[in-house]
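Thread: Newbie trying to understand structure tokens

Hi all, I'm a second-year student working on a class project, and my supervisor (Dr. K.) asked me to get a predicted structure for one chain before our next meeting. I've only ever worked with sequences, so writing a 3D structure as a token string is new to me. If someone could post the tokens and maybe explain what I'm looking at, I'd be very grateful. Here's the chain:
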Amino acid sequence: MTDKISAFLVKDGYKEKDFELMQQHVLVSRTSIEHKLKPKLYWLRDLGMSKSQIAQAVAVFPPILGLSIEQNLKPTVQCLLDSGLSGAEVARAVAVFPQIFGYSIEKNLKPKYNVLSSSFGSNATAERFRILKQRNEQTKLASIMPLTEAKRCGT
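---
Reply by user tm_fold:
Sure, no problem. This is what the structure looks like when written as tokens:
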């Protein structure tokens, strides 16, 4: 990670362990502070994620820094809100599984939501997430989301 990026993260209040997580990835070191890093980090913070959660999300899914806020991040968050999750639940889902931002809404997220809704009733996605949350098993989302042929599960 460049000294400029490290200085920015320290100045912005990130702990050393947080930027150590992020510095493991070449993509972070090649990221423009003003045009990519700063806007994404602030946007994720406004979403409700802690700095520690943001650092972990970037470490797990570095491409998040290259995604467009308007074309990728906001529409995905809106899709999750439309499925019945609260803002806090969306922030937690993103913290646990930041790869969700890399999924197509039309080809991946909506079909999965439709399968859950038709199989378990409306608002199934939010209900399943709440059940996982109650059981402290949000990491199971990571095994659910990569399913690429969700429609086959419902037949």
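A couple of things are worth pointing out once you decode it. The chain has two domains: 3-66, 69-153. The chain has eleven helices and no strands. Feel free to ask follow-ups in this thread.
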